[in-house]
Fold this protein.
Amino acid sequence: RILENYRDILAGNGLTDMLFAPEEYELNSAYIESFDGFYLELEGYLTQFEIELFLKIAAVKPFAIKVRTTPFNLKVINIFRELGIEIAQNSIVEFSLSEKKVLSSQKLPLNVQSEVVECAERIEQIAVAVAKIEEMVKSGIDAEKIALIVPDESIVPLLRSFDRAQNFNFAMGQSFREDISYKFLDQLHNYLSGDGVAKEFLQHNSFDFSLAIPAEAIGVEEFFALLKTLNIPRFNSETLLEELEKVNLLESYYRFVHIFKTRELHFKEWLFIWLHELGEHSIDDTRGGKVTVMGLLESRGILFDGVVVLDFNDDKAPSVSNKDRFLNSSVRAAAKLPTKTDRENLQKHYYARLLEKAKSSVLIYSSSDNAQPSKFLYELGVAGSIKRYKTPHELLFNTKSNYNAYKHMDDIEFDFDAHATVWSASKLKTFLECRRKFYYRYIKGLQEVRESELNDGAILHTLLYRVINPQSSYSESSELKKALLQEMAKIESADNRLPYKRLLWDAMLDGFVQKQIEHFRSGWQVANCEFEASGTIAGLEFKGRIDRMDSKDTQSLIIDYKSGSIQSANGSKIENLADFQMSIYAKLLDRPVDDIDFAFVEILKGGKLTYLQSPQEKEEKLLEHIEYLKSQKSLRAERCEDLQKCRYCPYTLLCHRGEYL
């Protein structure tokens, strides 16, 4: 029934599918009669439909087929044996399908003389491939007759990145997903889905947010009309059709409009479908490189004098797609569908034909992550020639530059005026911990990578603000826990870790709930939450956002929520202290010391209330730092000495630090 519904939908839109060709086709006999005969050089297998079609043509005109038999295409021999044509193994055979007789047969055992090279890392294969191609060219092989075969096309972006001399011509083109217009549309869809990072991307690219996107459903032509007004590359109003034609998308555009001409959807839904259509296309490579990069299937029937194959590993050569795992081999064989073995043998046949025709060939594989070379090497008879090649890394990384990053690493100086900025506890902490980080973040304005929306600290702060505030009052643990769980259930996120996080917070907040009830029963009440404090401290402007202030009689208590450790914020070693958050709050609130206290609450570690240590000494140290800030007119952006601080710093790459180095 599903098949019939699919047929009806296609017919209703004036379309068809090759799936139905065996039932619906009609042979154009007049066209067949216009030829003297037909000749086919067969490289792969034939489907039942193709055999039926060729037999009908052969009944009208002479039809000859030439095939190279190898140990890997025995299925072809069996197919023609069923038709009464006996073909020899390991031979080049030409036979008449019309007369069902062999015209010629030449014995030709498979003979592959390939060099096999092992690389420690996958990326090193690229350097070895470039070196081997260079050797082939020096030996007299024309670069235009050299192919670089990629069984797994995920390595293509790396190849493209290192092809600075533009020696490669990528037969598969470039995925449209890598085009700036696709990325722009994708970010627009993400923005409409509530992604804050996407909004930053659009802002950076001058997207006009004042343009009205209708809330109601619209037709497909209205969708494209609106798309033209958004000033997106390739999709502006004046050159839309021209741009689509340049990237071979004009036919897809007209087909898309035709299929959906009667549909009405919301703009975001149209955008999702159009992105899916665009993502299936590629843009032709027009850079003009002489060495062809292609997948195995694209190489069928083509003669290359030089062949280099990457990723000749057990899981990639031959490779098995997910669709081949959908049905087991016995079911496939019963339904006369290609089995997993059939597909593997077909790929082996293509490799064998490619390699035996080449004057020079190299098979390269990676041994990283315990990867193994393809067992197919044994069937080709070249497994005994594996070499470890000294990787010419200079072909990838030795690019000349007048800039020496290491030489200038500690020579950065910048003008500095402490009065020209508004300070905060985090800005001061950054300054005291690492001048280089301060320079990148506050002087150069380099934005950090956006944190996950499931950041514990941010979510728990919001959660507690909604539950514990001046309008709330709790006398029992069950009341407070119930309110927290209700608010927790309202948290929405596309992150599939959210259910786990809810369970985790539920368990870890029990101690916090108990301590808070004890706190309230002792007479404390919430006076204010999440409020701004700003002012001048020793001549410099400061501001801060205070999590909570409780009151009891004439006494006040400033509380700072911590989802992690309080060690850096409440350390006893004043000389090494960089976090002066509470000291800044104290100066901004300008209250008598006897009237106000400061404490930290470790939300996920039992909820214990820990009072600020040595507040007077810390306040004095804060004033010392402020005086130093005011005295400086220029500073050197020195890197910090404590490498532990670099571990989670967003600027490790710029500083040439971090564990990965």
